[in-house]
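Protein 1 of 2
SEQ + STRUCT:
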Amino acid sequence: MKLILAIVNDEDGNKVINELSKNGFSVTKLATTGGFLKAGNITMIIGTDDDKVQDVIEIIRSKSHRRTQITASPMPMSASASFTPYPIEVQIGGATIFVLDVDHFEKV
């Protein structure tokens, strides 16, 4: 058995969850916030059999898309430095997926 942790952009999260549910996968949804842009994410916890991991990953890949966003440049680490923020282009979206082995699973 495997435990899949998938971090997906808020804009794609419900599409991913709906598609996973439609295909028979149970999903636990956690609202999370990313560190760099401080933007909303959805972290999904999915338990599945080893042979279904690729199916889950393909569903996530098909429903979560990368996009470009303009944001202000990050603040310098030194507070004494003068700073004028300027717009930078960053890639957001897509998914970060972790697949972990499960030693024991029990549903009570």
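Protein 2 of 2
SEQ + STRUCT:
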Amino acid sequence: MTHIDRLYDSLAAGAADLHTAQPPLVTRAEQLGNPTEPVSPEHTNEEVRALFARHEAQETVAVVEEGRPIGLINRNTFMEHYARPFARDVFGRKSCIAFMDKSPVVVDRDTPIETLVKIAVEAGTRVLQDGFITTAHGQYLGLGTGYGLMKAMSDIEAEKTRQLLSSISYASLIQRSHLAESDRVLRAHLPDHGLLWQPRDVVGGDAYFFRHTPGGLLGCVFDCTGHGVPGAFMTLIALSFLEQAIDPANPAVDPGATLSAMNRYIKRVLQQRASEDDALAEKESSDGLDAALFLLAPDGRSVQFASARLTLVVAHEGSEEVLLVDGDKAGIGYADTPDDQAWTTQQVPLARHSMLLIPTDGVIDQIGGPKHIAHGKRRLVQFLAERRGTSARALCADFAEHFTQWQGSQRRRDDVSLLAFRTSAEALA
């Protein structure tokens, strides 16, 4: 069974869990209405007082005339007026309409809860205190309470949140499944490596791709537009391209040409073209990614490197200098990136033992430190220089701790990824 087969089995199990029977939600006003016995204008205030005395839990009573609601009597309001001196003598035998609210909130039984909430907000605090009347074709059905309405809306929002979190969890499962083969390749063919991959949310716009080819280990680290679910969808588009475009049996993969092909693919999939009409251009999408793609020679003594805006950081054995290999300035797939944009493949010689880092913008741009400024490349270079003798795995673990301390109380701005690996002919399988 392939990892894709396992993915779909997991998704099927997740879908079954999503549809597990849940308590029915209250979605319409009718479900909140209790068929409480109303009174009519013929009922006296004394009769209403007696009704409230018999039903101590009842807070309101509807006043109905020929089946149609005309008012609502609130227990507290009624008792406040009726308890005044001589009120019982003056109003006791008079119609109960004297103390009723003549403009209660009345809704049809099919009114959605969301609509009822809007009506309640417009009515002010009356619905919370008095509740509302439900009807069918204008005829009285029952009374609903403000508490019942709040609980129903709370349950609806909780269910929406549950479904959203479930969907995001499945999106994370899909994204991680696409990365599983790359994790296996890294473990098998690049033993001394460290990979810090921290989506800002459950899913994110950073991802990676590794395959072993006769020409060496091919790797790609990329940072897509956005984060969260939108960013994750972009990573799936990029990963889908790489899975189709990279033939593990091909010994001659050109990193720059591969980025150019990715650019054309993403622009075609997303239908992104530059527009001469500025007003139209503002409405069109312009999504893409920054990416670093490399082919590490089997002997570990050189790497072919092409990049869209991401930097390769190299520390050679026996040298105090840390080399920064910058990428081309054009991003991949964006509307203003030409279809025929070309990315340069650079040949970078390596020492017998070299440490290489590839960070995404989430590392470089994170605000933190005592001055609340961006982390920047300079601090990353200094960090590497101070730990050039450690393993890549240890360096990556140390950087994760350093980065957390750097961020401090600042919010995480973006997804964070950092690939670190050490080369040597003995280590490369």
